[in-house]
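Q: What changes when D-xylitol-5-phosphate is included in the input?
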Amino acid sequence: MPSFKLAPSILSADFSRLGQQVQEAVDAGADWLHVDVMDGHFVPNLTMGPMVVRALRPLTTLPLDVHLMVLQPERLIPAFVEAGADSLTVHVEACPHLHRVIQQIHGLGARAGVALNPATPLVALEEILPYVELVLIMSVNPGFGGQSYIPTSTGKIARLRAMLVQRGLEEQVVIQVDGGIKPDNAREVVEAGATVLVAGSAIFNTRASVAANMAAFRQALRSVHPA
Ligand code: DX5
Ligand code: ZN
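A: The predicted holo structure follows.
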């Protein structure tokens, strides 16, 4: 069993043939499918809503992992769960009542994650860690695919890993990293403690096939020693 999972972000897929692109990722061994939801307010970009999740749901049994880069996510969460989302990740910066939102997600039967922007310190997780299944460390400022990895994210992942170990939560909470992840830095983030790697532009691009791009990740991560 690999000690890491690859979660292609459909944000960089060719939307004129989204079903086909998702099928390519599934066939190439994707572990999760990452769905980036942006509202034009929390982040400057606008992307997709529950109907895209609904359209993808019949295509795969893989977990549909929804990253909500939106204000007031509680208004959208029921529709995403109903559409077939398996996990919902909300930003701590967008939720004054974060614990309530996590309870809402669990109450609807989905897995709950919390995301931190690059400038948000880990201390913001102190009280919520025991209640979540996933922490998403943003390694770019959310809003767009194709940005460069912020190098201090590696240390942040390692410190989060230590925090989880110290609290006996390392089996319960998955560390996901999102933004600028490429075969070049995949090993570094897994060795620091990330277990789910989100990648958009490194997997869906015109330079190579989805299968070749996924294989490049697996090659870079062969015999990796996770944290
Ligand atoms: C960024 C999104 C990411 C994005 C990653 O705001 O949350 O999931 O798709 O894209 P890449 O891998 O191209 O940085
Ligand atoms: Zn994302």
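Observations recorded in class: The chain has seven helices and eight strands.
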